[in-house]
Amino acid sequence: MGLPICATCGMQYAEAREDCPICEDERQWVPREGQQWTDLDSLRAERSAALRDEGGVLGIGCEPKFAIGQRALLVRTDAGNVLWDCTAYLDDEIISAIDDLGGLVGIAISHPHYYTTMIEWARAFDVPIHLHEADRQWVGRPDPAIRFWSGTTHEIVPGLTLINLGVHFAGGTVLHSAAGRGSLFTGDIVQVIPDRAHVGFMYSYPNLIPERPSVVQRAAELLDELAFDSLHGAWWDTVIPTGAHEIVQRSAARYLRFVREA
User: pTM for this one?
Assistant: First the structure.
């Protein structure tokens, strides 16, 4: 068996182990039947690549979905392409598709639930991974490709900036693109919900633990300073094509109104 990948959260570890710290954390869960493991070769035997347009951005994942089910996004710029967030599945079809579009200059990930096989990706494209240092403890497979950054903002390439909001995890980060009318890539640090007219903020989604009001207030203030019209969430079809800035601010105000009434 290759390097172990948790079947529940998708985290790849550097060596075999019985426990998954990500799943044992209060933001996740360990299945009733116990911890289950797989590896990348097994995933390749059972699944296939999924590549599709996500509001003008290439979405990358697999069918059927695996673990948490998020998809990655290829954010293209004149200075090179950046992979936003990460998915456990990686095969030659995905590598060829990205290479045909110019390859990668870096990888950036919103929070530890999506670290998954990030080292496999970094080695396939020979690029660094940008992670916020506040989430250093959650890395399952340490590697020199990981570049920890600190503070509130970090520009990867001209026009692409990471912003640490601290929602969901201490290092919870979103990616802002200044191109055009501006776009925000959020994973589930800012969660796109079904009505597409609002977003959500949670400390744990599966365990229904709300985020602290002070954290959401700070996140709203940081995002209010940015210009963006569209917003891309973590899963397939979670895109707000226009009006996203106003939606985020309205949603934060609604959230704070409800939690502060308690």
Answer: 0.97
